[in-house]
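Researcher: Quick test of sequence recovery. Tokens follow.
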């Protein structure tokens, strides 16, 4: 169902990197990441963690955990698939990074988040096919 998962996490100067790495690992336990130093909009230093999950088992575990989240969130996700997916079948999700520290998966539309780009299996790789495949397993 999922080919791979790319992730990105912004850690700002006033945030605890260890806590947010824990949040990332609560969502993607096998995540290996690279750290890039950058500047925020106001010039403050920040870290950007990025990486990719390719192993089928890890992708399957992620999907299983996602499907165990709050049903109302999944129903909303199913309704919003058209706006959360690009033409190649990549699903863009944001999970609240503060909730993720406590191992709670909260899908959000904006704000501080763990950004996920999830390549949904579709043959050929088209938005409509990926949406159909995903909507069949969402409530």
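Model:
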């Amino acid at each position: 169902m999922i080919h791979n998962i790319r992730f990105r996490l912004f850690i700002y100067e006033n945030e605890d990197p260890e806590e947010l790495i824990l949040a990332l690992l609560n969502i993607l336990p096998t995540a290996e990441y690279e750290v890039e130093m950058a500047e925020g909009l106001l010039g403050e230093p920040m870290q950007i963690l990025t990486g990719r999950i390719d192993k089928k088992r890890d992708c399957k575990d992620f999907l299983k955990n996602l499907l165990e989240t709050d049903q109302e969130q999944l129903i909303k996700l199913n309704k919003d698939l058209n706006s959360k997916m690009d033409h190649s079948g990549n699903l863009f999700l944001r999970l609240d990074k503060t909730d993720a520290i406590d191992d709670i998966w909260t899908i959000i539309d904006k704000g501080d988040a763990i950004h996920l780009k999830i390549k949904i299996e579709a043959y050929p790789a088209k938005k409509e096919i990926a949406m159909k495949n995903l909507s069949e397993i969402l409530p």
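Residues 56-67 form the longest helix (12 residues).
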